[in-house]
Amino acid sequence: MECRLKCEKPGEIVYTMTITMSADQWCTLRDQLQEAKTNYIWPASDLVRQITDLLGQARKVYWPLEASEISNGHGA
Known about the structure:
By secondary structure, the chain is mainly α.
């Protein structure tokens, strides 16, 4: 059997990249991007926003409550 793959418009193919880093590494990357003080345009602007959103969601779920929240009865 012989088979050949041909792609007419490779720029239109959707690719997925998975990046695995610790939360501290994501924070460092976010901080580096924000410190660059660049007015990012798309798609870089979406990347910065997505990293910030990801960390915000993780903080709500995984980070321990602040001591003041625990003493006010908001802890488990």
